Amino acid sequence: MPVQKNAEGHEVNQHIGISRGGKTTKLHTLVDGLGNPLAFLLTGGQVHDSVPANDLLQEFDLTGSHILGDKAYGSEAIRRWVTAKQATYTIPPKENSRNPWIVDWYLYKESHLVECFFNKIKHFRRVATRYDNLAKSFLSFVYVAAIFKLTH
């Protein structure tokens, strides 16, 4: 029996995408200035990092905030959206950018906080390898791992 594309258990609905490495899931997160997680979002592996950025940021009042991100988040649309929300950003331009902007490289060094958080929760093999078939089960365990790391 063929699987329906819009069925609840279909890979597309489980945020499983095909990228160079095979079937993968990307976990996007937003952390505060101390590296504590604020929000999570799952996408398929083929989705570019900048696509879910606005979805994550829309959950918060950014007024007076400073957003740090890597080159993948340097699109004009994201930068314009952040400044429209009365926030500032430190995102380096890509090498081939037509209109590069000035970056505070000293402040940019703090963007490692996201990677540090991912390293903490990847100690849980269930998060690092995504054993769960359902996206809601995987995301639930990501929350459990984050809570465990925050309390220990």
How does this model look, in words?
By secondary structure, this protein is α+β, with helices and mostly antiparallel strands. It has one domain (16-151): Nucleotidyltransferase, domain 5. The protein is built from six helices and five strands. Strands 1-2-3 form a three-stranded antiparallel sheet. A two-stranded parallel ribbon has the order 4-5. A hairpin with a 5-residue loop joins strand 2 and strand 3 (37-44). The longest helix is centred in the C-terminal third of the chain and has 17 residues, at 135-151. It is globular. The mean pLDDT is 87.
Break the fold down into its secondary structure elements and pairings.
Blueprint: E1 17-19, E2 22-31, E3 37-44, H1 53-57, E4 66-68, H2 76-84, E5 88-90, H3 105-108, H4 112-121, H5 125-129, H6 135-151
Parallel strand pairs: 4-5
Antiparallel strand pairs: 1-2, 2-3
